Amino acid sequence: MATAMEQEMHEEVGKRRTFAIISHPDAGKTTLTEKLLLFGGAIREAGTVKARKASRHATSDWMEIEKQRGISVTSSVMQFDYEGHRINILDTPGHQDFSEDTYRTLTAADSAVMLIDAAKGVEAQTKKLFQVCRKRGIPIFTFINKLDREAQNPFELLEELERLLGIRSYPMNWPIGSGKQFCGVYDREKSQLELFQPEETGSVEVREVSGYEDPLVKEIAGDYLYERLCEDLQLLDVAGDAFDYEKVRSGELTPVFFGSAINNFGVQTFLENFLQLAPKPEPRNSTEGLVEPESGKFSGYVFKIQANMNPAHRDRIAFLRIVSGKFERGMAVKHVRVGKEIKLAQPQQFLAQDRDIVDTAYAGDIIGLFDPGIFRIGDSLCQSGAIVFDELPTFSPELFSKVTVKSSLKHKQYQKGLDQLTEEGTVQIFRTVGFDDIILGVVGQLQFEVFEYRMKNEYGVDIMLQRMPFQFARWVVDDKIDPTKFRINSQLVRDRNDHFVALFENEYAMRTAMDKMPSAKFLETAP
């Protein structure tokens, strides 16, 4: 017989769904997030990203630079309740320049929602992010967006999923037309029509039918669209993949939904199906084996650090994914890396930058911990033992700049900004061997712009960035490293953990160094 506490844990974990939304920029990801929040009653009015000259901005885009540019540059976390479920949404930046932040955030999700523009199909960044989900073997749910505009043939879109991403698909519903002709979707599971009425974004009219050959479908769709719909659905019934829940769970089959997030069409159907099919919190791998969510002892790991979420208070928040057990405000836990016990006094839950103090949380939840500078990305916290969760991925930077501060009087603020933004993962920092110059490494150019902007606006420091010609960074592991081997088209530096890193201008320089040092290992990620 289960104890009351075990029963409570089982129920609470079963309620939770923690997922990330991934897409190429401009596919409508932030808009979809807003509409999901509307259904959860978390917001009353969806801000539109396009109308950024107006006072409204998307709830999940809270940083000033995001409001100015109309893009997401940092992952945000939103929590709300819907029909007995506690939902944690991780809204990630779609822009490829912020892929590192996105990759780390994906480690905190149990499933992913892949958003695809119906006109553009599978785009480059979607492909990149999909591969990360694939490596983790997590379920992927697909929402094909913007059916209110002219779109590709739905079969071509499904074929792209298989050809470019290597995943089979099962359409849960099927569109009737697109663009100006778009009149709704046919729900294959429930045999019903959902009618698209662009002027009525508050609710969707649903008509029950006996099947897709019902005369009512013909009456609503018109002869041409009705004929196409019947042909398409007959083809799917005969040649399409069968629905297989186990394949969905293992990330081999993606349920596909069609809709228009900006018009709030298809979003509720998607959400209700998703909550039934998506997994509850999953176990996580650690030095002590798999850690089960319903095990009694609390544990979790830091997957993101964000400075200055509230510019007035200059605070730092460490985002913690709870892996197991029950979290209680004020509890003492072991900070495994530093080997000390700490008290978690002011845990917070989020709706982007709006937060509430949280008293209890369970496996699957994301909580924010006030960080006085003691946390790093990847840190494990646990109630007992010394659990260390699998390391979060780091990526080799591809662009490099030497950074200097314009005013020596601002050195203290400069150092603080440099330390905090590096710990956040905004940039990677390297120091040259011998000269102690500071070189920043990033995955995309926009990261330099965000770094410069935040140094000025959050720390009051003007900096100069001087681009360097390097294209590759490799961590060098060898008993004896000779800096003189890195003089031509390369440079030896140290990372923030004092590991040696070689920067190379081109592949030829990298191969030359490898030939000169046959005993050394040249690694793409930190050892």
Structure characterization notes:
Helices cover about 25% and strands about 30% of the residues. It has about 525 residues and is of the alpha+beta class. The chain folds into three domains: about 20-75 and about 90-275, Rossmann fold (3-Layer(aba) Sandwich); about 285-380, 3-Layer(aba) Sandwich (Rossmann fold), CATH 3.40.50; about 400-525, Alpha-Beta Plaits (2-Layer Sandwich), CATH 3.30.70. The strands form seven sheets. It has an eight-stranded antiparallel beta sheet. A seven-stranded mixed beta sheet has the order 2-3-1-4-5-11-6, with helices on both faces. It has a six-stranded antiparallel beta sheet with strand order 18-17-23-14-15-22. It starts with a helix and ends with a strand.
Short descriptors:
527 residues, alpha+beta, Rossmann fold, Alpha-Beta Plaits, seven-stranded mixed sheet
Q: Which structural class do the helices and strands define? A: alpha+beta
Cα separation of the termini: 47 Å
- Helicity, as a percent range: 25-40%
Q: Fill in the CATH topology of the largest domain.
A: Rossmann fold
Supply the CATH superfamily name of the largest domain: P-loop containing nucleotide triphosphate hydrolases
Approximately what portion of the residues adopt beta-strand conformation? 25-35%
Question: What's the SSE blueprint?
Answer:
Blueprint: H1 4-15, E1 16-22, H2 29-39, H3 64-69, E2 76-82, E3 85-91, H4 99-106, E4 111-117, H5 124-136, E5 140-145, H6 154-165, E6 168-171, E7 173-176, E8 184-187, E9 192-195, E10 205-208, H7 215-221, H8 223-239, H9 245-249, E11 253-258, H10 267-277, E12 284-286, E13 289-291, E14 299-307, E15 316-324, E16 326-328, E17 332-335, E18 340-343, E19 348-351, E20 354-357, E21 360-362, E22 366-370, E23 380-382, E24 399-405, H11 411-424, E25 428-432, E26 438-442, H12 445-459, E27 463-468, E28 472-477, E29 490-495, E30 500-504, H13 507-516, E31 521-523
Parallel strand pairs: 1-3, 1-4, 4-5, 5-11, 6-11
Antiparallel strand pairs: 2-3, 7-8, 8-9, 9-10, 12-13, 14-15, 14-23, 15-22, 16-21, 17-18, 17-23, 19-20, 24-26, 24-27, 25-26, 25-29, 28-30, 28-31, 29-30
